[in-house]
Amino acid sequence: MATTNLTDAAVRNAKAKPKQRVEVWDSHTPGLCLLVNPRSKTWVVRYRVDGKQRRYAFAEAGVDGMSLADARIEAAVILRAVKKTGADPAGDRLKVKAEAKAQPIKTFRDLANAYTAACRAGEWKPRGKRQSDRTLKDADGSLDRHILPALGDMKLEDVTRPVVRKFLRGMAAKGIGAQTNKALAVIRQIYSYAIAEYEGKLVAVNVATGQPREAETPRSRVLTDDELKRLWNGLRAPGSLRLPLREGQEEAGKVHLSRSMAILLQLSLLLLQRRNEIAGMMVSEVDLAQAVWLIPAPRMKARKPHLVPLPARAVELITEAIALARTALKPGPDGKMPTDFPVFPSPRDVLTPIRPGTVTHAAAPVMKALEITDASPHDLRRTGSTALTSERIGVSHFIRSLVLSHTTDTGGGAAVSGRHYDANTYITEKRRALVAWESLLLEIVGEKPRTSNVREFPGAAA
Description:
Elements lengths: L1 E3 L3 H6 L8 E5 L5 E6 L2 E10 L2 E9 L7 H18 L3 H14 L5 H13 L12 H19 L9 H13 L3 H21 L27 H12 L22 H13 L3 H5 L6 E2 L4 E4 L10 E4 L2 H16 L28 H14 L7 H13 L7 H8 L10 H6 L6 H18 L18
Parallel strand pairs: 1-2
Antiparallel strand pairs: 2-3, 3-4, 4-5, 6-7, 7-8
């Protein structure tokens, strides 16, 4: 059993002879191990619960698996959960297996439950990687809202291709093409799991294979300068917002928006990150002195850590949000105050981040009061993204993609080079881009004097 400060090259070159198993423990992150078999490499974390040692394999390693950097972050997250909450992922995995054996699968609901449990336990990795929390939540939402009400109580033998086709066409007829395609993808994954896990004994064919996808019209909503000004100023003073008068009403209703939620929406405009990423922000992720925010891999759509530089106004807003969150904290059983907590806590539990869906729900009456039609929090991200590459700022598409954490834009170079041979974070370029966007936004909303219709990108060559 070797212990060393693992490197990407060491992970890549680690080998095991036939019928041999090699364990390489990482001195950088105690408890993290690279388990090497002749045909596979696996990331394992070791911990203790109730005095008993546990080993938990959480991801594949190697070229197509989780990187060393991501594995260290994931291991740290697991070990922190073990220490703080007594989590036992290895024990949970054994329970899932035992429950699956004890409960025979007869209906589609039974199969869907077995699938989601296997995903959460890390037993089922459709693309060789553990599914992100966001992916699992999206699948749960599709199952709860659409799939299970229609198919849940049906026996597996009754869930045929024609039945699934009729169900999907019924969804499409409601004008929800994107949701229809998501439901199709979830059903396909459930049956792929069943065929692989039960070796064709439970179901013989994937009833979602060959089902046509619905055409989707991508959203293109971008807020105008006037809408941005109304929104920003409305978020600064939400108490003044009033909903439009309905027929028979004598007094317009108030918009109930907390200062914390107003800050969250302002940060959505300033930082251009996804609503779930901002909603899940933890104090430990933010370094206000260095003006950076490191979002850990498990919370990112691409399952890679994402470093977000923080412009000055964003630092001010996050500082205010942390102060608001701290006022609601209470000492723990040990009498000490928590040192790590959500920047935007749930009103039900101050140690749990607010749910992303709450952000959309809270934004809707704000948009209505300000007469900004057909706009959602994600449209704020699109608005800033569009401004970045416009002549008003002039950021390259490549840097814009890095700001947004889009992983498909390689700036015209070979994709393999961008994925495997470029370790730069481009923090300087990303900071310039977000500072330029903040400056333009504050000019638009009237907090800074407007200098010109065309802006020079900070740091660009003359």
